[in-house]
Amino acid sequence: MYRDPVQSLEAPSLPSSATAMRPLRVGMIGIGTVGAGTFRVLARNQALIAGRAGRGIKMVVVCARSLARAMSVVGKDVALTNDPMQVATHPDVDVLVEAAGGTGTARDWVLAAIRAGKHVVTANKALLAEHGNEIFAAARQHGVAVAYEGAVAVSIPIVKALREGLTANRIEWVAGIINGTTNFILSKMRDEGVGFAEALAQAQALGYAEADPTFDIEGIDAAHKITLLAANAFGMPVRFADAQVEGITALQGLDVACAEQLGYRIKLLGVARRRKDGEVDGVELRVQPALVPATHLLAHVNGSMNAVMVKGDASGVTMYYGAGAGSEQTASAVIADLVDVARLQGTQAAQRVPHLGFHADAVNDSLAVLPRAAVHTRHYLRVPVHQAQQIEAVGAWLAAQQVPVLRVELACEKTAPVGAGPQVLVLTDAVAQSTVDLAVHALAAHPAVAGPVAALRVEMLEG
Ligand SMILES: NC(=O)c1ccc[n+]([C@@H]2O[C@H](COP(=O)([O-])OP(=O)(O)OC[C@H]3O[C@@H](n4cnc5c(N)ncnc54)[C@H](OP(=O)(O)O)[C@@H]3O)[C@@H](O)[C@H]2O)c1
């Protein structure tokens, strides 16, 4: 008789191999969306997880601000406290799950846990983007692991893919849609022809955007994540402060429609690209709304979904797709990290997968983020003009400024409302950002130009 293998793993009792070893004892700070999901999934899939980890994983203490609310989630068998430091340094805790968020006190708790010899699991991308170098150095010094799959793309195991599955490769670039809120907003703008403000209001009403959506819509959340991916891809320190970050607040519905006319869709992309050409040696590290060809796989990642693509010299392009947020979706990553930690028992720190994929002596401290001016991509320009015939003057003027123009056309009536006036749409070949910035600035003074010029990058992300 056929037996589903997963069903057989879900037997209520722990496998005998998992009872031989002491369970991994977890202390958790914060029992909100991520914390509660982690507790639920750990409880629901207890035997299955233990079978994979080789030992049980047991929540022993939880820190919450409201103990009554915490008790309603974890029941009476888990100790509760209001004091995060007590969990971080608790003698019965092997691993701290930091699920509270923030970068101030969360840093103190995580460092205290590390100094007390605890492993740490966190989904806190802001914390690692800002303090990752310090936290990973402390973890190395104390011989403990800091695991953070949930901090990047949640249900997509992209950190594991980069650190383990793709270790043979020289990574050329990593790019992706790594913020569900902005992808939801951009999908609404395209599908329903609404402006940014209305799409944001819909996202908030449906729970896809927070009451204060700044980190999402300004691209900061995506920048936290692409910074961590870049460190893993290229063997560089975490360089969030150097990332170029542009959100979608200034994006106009008109540009979403014009991109469509040209055969492209606009997505908020995180891009990390290794560049070594001529004088240039560094990494482009940036978040920006960009045009991708409508035929590209990333153009079809809609709603709140996330996707990451990686180009390796041996693997070619690989793509990973899944939910980028959510209670149990994040728990999936947090628990995968706990299973990794459970499997560390008896290993020496040097034998483990390094925090950022490269052993400390192989991390290239001098590998720098390239300045904005050096970024090299194709571009889209939308130039409002007084009269449609001025299209030729605009094209010729751009070419004279060393902008490699590939295509020039007028926005059609269906694309641009009559009141907007004629719009010249330009696609360029790859060109330095400095050239485009100069041309856009100078265009403002051109007699044919009737208003502010919109400029966006175009990402081909080819194999
Ligand atoms: N939600 C997601 O889908 C998701 C996905 C990936 C990563 N993350 C990351 O995971 C972390 C947690 O996010 P979340 O969505 O779970 O947030 P959340 O729902 O707001 O939960 C955070 C919890 O931590 C508690 N907390 C905060 N400071 C505390 C303190 N000093 N002592 C005790 N408890 C404290 C909060 O208590 P109060 O309720 O009393 O404030 C809240 O219950 C963040 O770093 C976030 O970026 C979240």
Written description of the protein model:
With 463 residues, this protein is of the alpha/beta class. It folds into 3 domains: 5-154 and 329-362, Rossmann fold (3-Layer(aba) Sandwich); 158-324, Dihydrodipicolinate Reductase, domain 2, CATH 3.30.360; 374-458, Alpha-Beta Plaits (2-Layer Sandwich). It is built from 17 helices and 17 strands. Strands 7, 8, 9, 10, 11, 12, 13, 14, 15, 16 and 17 form an 11-stranded mixed β-sheet that branches. Strands 3-2-1-4-5-6 form a 6-stranded parallel β-sheet, sandwiched between helices. It is elongated. Residues 1-12 have low confidence and may be disordered. Bound molecules: NADP nicotinamide-adenine-dinucleotide phosphate. Residues 29-35, 63-66, 84, 99-101, 105, 123-125, 150, 154, 325-326, 330 line the site of NADP nicotinamide-adenine-dinucleotide phosphate (NAP).
Short overview:
The protein has 463 residues and is of the alpha/beta class. It has helices spanning 5-9, 16-19, 33-44, 46-53, 67-74, 84-88, 105-115, 125-142, 158-165, 180-192, 196-205, 214-217, 220-234, 253-262, 327-342, 391-400, 433-443, and strands at residues 24-29, 57-63, 79-81, 95-98, 119-122, 146-147, 171-177, 244-245, 264-277, 280-293, 305-312, 316-323, 376-384, 405-410, 423-428, 431-432, 454-458.
